[in-house]
UniProtKB/TrEMBL annotation:
Protein family (similarity comment): Belongs to the ROT1 family.
Cleavable signal peptide: 1-20
Chain's role: Required for normal levels of the cell wall 1,6-beta-glucan. Involved in a protein folding machinery chaperoning proteins acting in various physiological processes including cell wall synthesis and lysis of autophagic bodies.
Taxonomic superkingdom: Eukaryota
Keyword Endoplasmic reticulum recorded: yes
Protein name: Protein ROT1
C-alpha cells in the first residue's frame, strides 16, 4: 500500500515537472542519447587537427552552458530500405550561441566557420568519406527537462520546429564537457588541403593517443557512470561502424 502511494506521488511529481516553465538553467550540462556513447567535447572533435572522431555507437549529444553557449555532436546512420547493405553515415560537430525565446522556442546559432561534417555513403563514394564545413541554424519549438523516474536520471526532450520529438537525451556531465566557447577556426577560408595532408601523415595510433590526451583537458563531471542502456539493439550498430579514419577525402568549401 505504502509503495503504491509512493508510486502515485512520484508520477504526479514527474508529470508536474514536465510542465514546469521551461527556462535556460534547465539546459545546463552535457546531454547524450540512449547509446550513451556520443558526447560533445574533445573526444568527438579535435579542433587543432580539425578531426572528427568516430564514437563506438551512433547517437547525439548537446551541451549548454549557463552563459548562452551550445555544442552539438551527432553520429547518425540512416538505413536505405532499397539497399539495406548501403546505410549512410554522418558525423557532425557544431557550436555557437543559443537563445530561449519568450514563447519557449530554442534557437541554436552556430559559429559558421567552425562546424564540420564527415559523410559516408559507401555504395556511392567507393568507401571514401567526405569532410566538409557545416553550418545549420537549429530551431526547437520547445523542450522539457525532468527527472526520468524510471531510469533515475535527468532527461531532456527537444521538440523540432514541426513539434515532433527528437530522441530523448539524458544528463551525462555537469558542468558540461565542451570545447572552448569561442571561435576555433577563425579564418573563413581555412585551407582544407593543408588539413588533409597533415591528417594523412598521422597514424590511427597518434589519433587515439591525442583523443585520450584531450579527454583529460576538461572540468566536466560525469553524472551517469553506468552504461545503463547498452543493449542488444545498440550493439547491432557497433557492427555497422563505417566511417573509417583511413579513407577520407577533404572537400574545399
Ligand atoms: C529554472 O528552473 C530551475 C529548475 O527547474 C529552477 O530551479 C529555477 O528556479 C528556474 N529559474 C527561473 C528563473 O524560473
Ligand atoms: C517563437 O518566437 C520566435 C521569434 O520570436 C518565432 O520565430 C517562432 O516562430 C515562435 N515559435 C512559435 C512556436 O510560435
Ligand atoms: C550559415 O547559415 C545561416 C542560416 O542557417 C545563413 O544565414 C548564413 O549565411 C550561413 N553562413 C555561411 C557562411 O554559410
Amino acid at each position: 500500500m505504502v509503495s503504491k502511494k509512493w508510486t502515485a506521488l512520484l508520477s504526479v511529481l514527474s508529470v508536474r515537472s514536465v510542465y514546469a516553465e521551461a527556462n535556460a538553467t534547465q539546459l545546463y550540462g552535457t546531454w547524450s542519447s540512449k547509446s550513451n556513447q556520443v558526447f560533445t567535447g574533445p573526444g568527438f572533435y579535435d579542433p587543432v587537427d580539425e578531426l572528427l572522431i568516430e564514437p563506438a555507437l551512433p547517437g547525439i549529444s548537446y551541451s549548454f552552458t549557463e552563459d548562452g553557449w551550445f555544442e552539438e555532436a551527432t553520429y547518425q546512420i540512416t538505413s536505405n530500405p532499397q539497399k539495406p547493405e548501403c546505410p549512410e553515415a554522418s558525423l557532425i560537430f557544431q557550436h555557437g550561441t543559443f537563445e530561449l525565446m519568450d514563447n519557449g522556442t530554442l534557437i541554436l546559432t552556430p559559429i559558421t566557420v567552425d562546424g564540420r561534417q564527415l559523410y559516408s555513403s559507401p555504395c556511392d563514394d567507393d568507401g571514401v568519406s567526405t569532410y566538409t564545413r557545416y553550418n545549420q541554424t537549429e530551431t526547437f519549438k520547445s523542450f522539457a527537462m525532468y527527472l526520468d523516474s524510471y531510469h533515475g536520471i535527468y532527461r531532456l526532450d527537444l521538440y523540432q520546429f514541426d513539434g515532433s520529438p527528437m530522441q530523448p537525451l539524458y544528463l551525462a556531465y555537469q558542468p558540461p564537457m565542451m570545447l572552448p566557447t569561442e571561435t576555433l577556426n577563425p579564418t573563413e577560408t581555412s585551407s582544407s588541403e593543408t588539413t588533409g595532408s597533415s591528417l594523412k601523415k598521422r597514424s590511427l595510433r597518434d589519433l587515439v593517443i591525442r583523443n585520450l590526451e584531450n579527454k583529460h583537458k576538461t572540468n566536466a563531471v560525469k553524472t551517469n557512470p553506468h552504461k545503463l542502456f547498452l543493449s542488444a539493439d545498440t550493439l547491432w550498430y557497433a557492427s555497422a561502424t563505417m566511417l573509417g579514419i583511413g579513407s577520407i577525402v577533404f572537400l574545399a568549401c
